[in-house]
Design goal:
The complex is a heterodimer of chains A (about 325) and B (about 400). Chain A is an all-alpha fold. Chain A is built from 10 helices and no strands. Chain A folds into 2 domains: about 50 residues; about 260 residues, Orthogonal Bundle (MetI-like fold). Chain A is globular. The model of chain A has no long low-confidence stretch (mean pLDDT about 90). With about 400 residues, chain B is mainly alpha-helical. Chain B has 3 domains: about 40 residues, no CATH class; about 100 residues, no CATH class; about 230 residues, MetI-like (MetI-like fold), CATH 1.10.3720.10. Helix content of chain B is about 70%, strand content about 0%. A two-stranded antiparallel sheet of chain B has the order 1-2. The N terminus of chain B is likely disordered. The chains are: A mainly alpha (about 325), B mainly alpha (about 400). Chains A and B meet through helix 1, helix 3, helix 4, helix 5 and helix 6 of A and helix 1, helix 3, helix 4, helix 10 and helix 11 of B.
Chain lengths: ~325, ~400
């Protein structure tokens, strides 16, 4: 009997060892893939990743190895992301405040809201692009042109523009901000709110003076994650604002813009000779990847610190 | 998180006696500002729901004529002379000139006259091609969107998506197959890997490994899809071709594998979350009874979290079928074939590649919006299923814990 038990024990140990190793191997492979992607891009992109490259424009040709720069693309991407942030952060934060501070947690409205937010997060990015065309450009922009401009003149708002790309991205990143803010709000001990209310503060005062400052790191995380997600997205801006080439930087919200991610797409698929422009392509990809990774790492860091602080508070 | 229900309940109970018309409570009457701000906050919160409804409405609105069969893409239409056109009622004229309500209203007589002349010229040009009997076919009607048809010069009825030239062929079946083919390859590659990693990280890995690897996979989710598309095109394409030696460089296998790079982090995080949410006491109980860590993970934790793992796969599928840039950069022609070594042109790539060339409000534009509406409906359904499963699982595990 004991012998059989021992054999079963050994078999158990072998199986455990084997499967632990197998799952560990899968984890290692995934990590390795990530390292290969990043390593490949850094290795090939580093040589051309110079200050001149980052600050030059495209006036001497987009595909010219020595004269092409990506400043207009960085500018365009920064502009559209900044405008997006101004819309998405306030709306996302207020929505999260409603869901955690005002609404009853299991009310039908909150369930409906949660369903809407989850679904919004899962809508394919190209559908956001179509939505941007159908709603922002054709409907909102078209109506604005009808109201503001002389009949028959060139459309000013009813065409692709920074503002429409930004708003489309704002709709897309709304769930990111809401979920991050909600997490931060839920982590605040109820005792803090109760103490404030017990001292005679109204609910609004409690939210503004007690809850909001505590949730600030979480809100920051949400904002950064939204920015990082939006920075790399190309599909939603394909028809809502990104331009293949522009002679000058955009001057108003109704202008089109050149975009870093879209430029990567152009360089990879539209260049006459991909082999020749490859160093340029790699450097552009490195710029985009560095930007999104930097944002992501900051977000991960802020969130980790926030969680540690919250654990200390509880 | 666990403190929340009691607090909310406590707050509710202090207010409940004075609930009156439209939620105006006695306490709030004394503080009108609070009441106004609360209602403003509620209104803002509703914007998330509003957005979903707007997306649904405006994408379907542009596609609606296709659904109802009111789009005519026939190259040869009965011709009208200028006099005949002038006799038409405004509504008929608008339809004949293929204008939307807004456009038509926004135009003055001059512009309309100009458009009529343009139409006349276009008609004359189309007449030259009308010897081809296919030119009379409305290719954007459901019969031609779904069923095979033997076009001029073809040997047998075929499903063809070819929206160029004189006769735009809009059969959507090759695109559906393209989407499914690429997504299935992506899932086949990513599900085993991502789930194994999720089990390892949540149950078996030493703490330090978890602390390093988890953020790394989170970071992987942050790689822009255009960068993954670039990597697939520049690095993976040549590499895979060398291994398998197939003739088509950009094919479904490449697109699927590239897609799996985007899907792995999604499936991993959702599955890892589900596995971690299984109460610690399950594992401890199993370990106390003499099970190994692997046995506890495989026989106790995994079955308990199985719905969540399933949801991870469903949501991963939703991501795969909706991903655009990766498949746009790794696909070429739309071919009606299930072979993984042939090119595949998924729905998303088709919309992205062709939208810019379409005439606003034209049949190509409408058919692409129809594809977008289908995609939206499908991913909506997948998300709904995935979230429902996760919601139930969380409820069950929290109830048991």
């Amino acid at each position: 009997m004991s012998n059989e038990g021992a054999i079963r024990g050994t078999r158990r140990d072998i199986a455990s060892f084997f499967f632990t190793g197998l799952t560990g191997l899968c984890t290692a492979i995934i990590t390795l893939i990530l390292l290969i992607i990043v390593g490949n891009i850094v290795y090939h992109g580093w040589g051309r990743f110079t200050l001149g490259f980052l600050t030059r424009g495209t006036e001497h040709g987009m595909f010219d190895l020595d004269k092409a720069g990506i400043f207009p693309m960085i500018f365009g991407t920064a502009a559209r992301v900044l405008v997006m942030t101004m819309f998405v952060v306030p709306i996302g934060v207020i929505t999260a405040i409603y869901m955690t501070e005002y609404a009853h947690r299991s009310s039908r409205l909150v369930r409906l809201l949660r369903g809407a937010i989850n679904n919004l997060a899962g809508v394919p990015s190209i559908v956001f692009g179509l939505f941007g065309v159908g709603f922002f450009i054709n409907f909102v922009g078209g109506q604005m042109d009808l109201a503001l401009n002389a009949k028959g003149s060139e459309p000013i708002w009813g065409k692709p523009a920074i503002i429409w790309a930004s708003l489309t991205l704002a709709v897309m990143t709304l769930p990111v901000v809401i979920v991050a803010t909600e997490e931060a709000l839920k982590a605040i001990p109820a005792g803090l709110r109760e103490a404030s209310l017990a001292l005679g503060a109204t609910k609004l005062e409690t939210i503004i003076k007690i809850v909001f400052p505590q949730a600030l790191p979480g809100i920051l995380t949400g904002g950064i994650l939204a920015i990082s997600r939006a920075t790399g997205e190309v599909a939603p801006i394909l028809f809502t604002g990104a331009a293949y080439y522009m002679a000058s930087l955009p001057k108003s919200l109704s202008d089109q813009f050149m975009d870093l991610g879209y430029h990567v797409y152009i360089l990879s698929t539209q260049a006459q000779n991909v082999d020749e422009t490859r160093p340029l392509l790699y450097a552009t990809v490195l710029a985009l990847l560095a930007l999104t990774f930097a944002l992501n790492i900051v977000a991960i860091f802020v969130r980790a610190r926030m969680r540690a602080q919250m654990r200390a508070l509880h | 998180m666990r403190d929340e229900p009691q607090t909310a309940a406590a707050m509710k109970s202090t207010h409940s006696p004075g609930v009156g018309w439209m939620g105006v409570r006695r306490g709030h009457k004394a503080r009108p500002l609070e009441w106004i701000v609360e209602k403003l906050i509620l209104l803002t919160a509703l914007s998330a729901i509003l957005m979903i409804l707007l997306i649904f409405f405006f994408v379907t609105r542009e596609a609606w004529p296709v659904f109802t069969g009111n789009v005519n893409s026939a190259a040869a239409v009965e011709q009208m002379t200028m006099e005949e056109m002038q006799k038409l009622s405004p509504a008929q004229l608008q339809k004949y000139l293929e204008l939307s309500d807004e456009e038509f209203r926004g135009m003055d007589q001059e512009t309309i006259k100009l458009l009529m002349e343009v139409k006349l010229e276009a008609m004359a040009e189309a007449k030259a091609h009308s010897e081809n009997p296919d030119a009379k076919i409305n290719t954007a009607s459901w019969r031609y969107l779904l069923q095979p048809y033997q076009w001029q010069g073809y040997e047998k009825p075929e499903h063809i998506w070819q929206p160029v030239g004189n006769i735009h062929k809009y059969n959507i079946i090759p695109l559906l197959i393209g989407s499914l083919k690429v997504s299935f390859i992506a899932l086949a590659a990513s599900v085993p890997m991502a789930l194994a990693a999720a089990i390892y990280i949540s149950q078996l890995a030493p703490g330090r490994v978890r602390e390093v690897v988890k953020p790394m996979i989170e970071l992987m989710a942050g790689i822009p899809s255009v960068v993954l598309g670039f990597f697939a095109l520049i690095v993976m394409a040549g590499f895979l071709q060398k291994i398998f030696g197939y003739p088509t460089r950009l094919n479904a296998l490449l697109a699927g594998l590239a897609l799996s790079l985007a899907v792995i982090p999604i499936i991993f995080s959702i599955a890892e979350d589900a596995l971690t949410s299984v109460p610690r006491s399950y594992t401890q109980g199993a370990l106390a009874l003499g099970a190994s860590k692997w046995q506890a993970a495989w026989q106790i934790v995994l079955p308990a979290a199985l719905p969540g793992v399933f949801a991870a796969v469903v949501l991963g599928f939703g991501r795969a079928i909706g991903e655009t840039m990766i498949v746009l950069m790794t696909s070429t022609a739309s071919v009606m074939s299930w072979s993984i070594f042939e090119s595949a042109r998924p729905i998303t790539a088709t919309i992205a590649a062709e939208m810019a060339e379409t005439v606003f409000g034209g049949h190509h534009y409408r058919v692409l919006f129809m594809l977008g509406a289908l995609l939206f409906a499908f991913t909506f359904l997948l998300n709904l299923i995935g979230d429902l499963i996760i919601h139930r699982l969380k409820g069950r595990l929290e109830g048991k814990a």
